[in-house]
Design goal:
alpha+beta, homodimer, globular
């Protein structure tokens, strides 16, 4: 049954990408597509974290919040934890997923790398939305090194 | 964790509706929106059923297929079974869900009824796609009686 949920999410996610990609036409279509997907992710992230943290005690600091995202939040959405979390202790966190679920559908060839940003935008928004609802304002970007491994970089915005 | 998956699906589903709704502008925008959503559902239904039935023995007849949709398929997507299945034994099946998950987000007032088709289109496509991959060609429509109860009508297309 868990496999079913995962499949449902993956299929829906790729339908969204295809649709947004085809609906956004115009000069800067690629940028708009990515930003629409990021915004969707943001709202979904906000909604999810509200449900997940209803019974969770408050976090003691920013690192504690990031650990929650890497373990509990990631597991509930992607069925695995983040493989590696690093920080410079000055507001930058790098979350590495060695087998990112939403990239495993994309073939591994170099010719597909140009599509990778579209496959990461929703998740960047998801993390930004989740953090935002936990009181942490951030900018989240992503990069693929060797598919399906990728890194999400979270830059905390101090208020 | 199951609640998390359900929430993820619900949030994604409502993001898709909102986005498709805003992207489809023009003369017959409402009809196009519903048909886009139905098509997305169709492809997702095809994909899901392929995974679900990999290890399932072949079905003995059309009714057997419908029962699988009402029990196993519905449970994996909506976390409950169809409450009632009826047929006229001439190719029409009515699947009733007394508490349809994707309608529970909509408020129950009469003024929201006009939005109901948009909230049912994806699922109509989902059923049509699943059946199609099991070799059953159909037309699937839906109607809301009292929210969040609804009925999906499947008309088998004989080939």
């Amino acid at each position: 049954l868990q496999m079913a949920d995962e499949a449902l999410f993956q299929f829906l996610h790729s339908e969204i990408i295809q649709y947004v990609n085809s609906a956004e036409t115009g000069e800067s279509e690629n940028g708009r597509c990515v930003s629409k997907l990021e915004n969707m992710g943001f709202r979904v992230g906000q909604g999810l974290i509200e449900r997940f943290t209803k019974d969770t005690p408050r976090f003691k600091d920013e690192l504690d919040v990031m650990k929650f995202i890497c373990k509990d939040f990631w597991t509930s959405v992607f069925k695995k934890q983040i493989d590696n979390l690093r920080t410079n202790h000055q507001g930058i966190y790098v979350l590495q997923d060695n087998k990112f679920r939403l990239l495993t559908q994309l073939s591994a060839g170099k010719q597909y790398m140009e599509h990778a940003p579209k496959f990461l935008a929703f998740t960047c928004g998801l993390v930004r939305g989740a953090l935002s609802n936990l009181g942490v304002k951030s900018i989240v970007t992503a990069e693929v090194s060797v598919m399906p491994a990728c890194k999400f970089q979270v830059m905390i915005q101090k208020m």
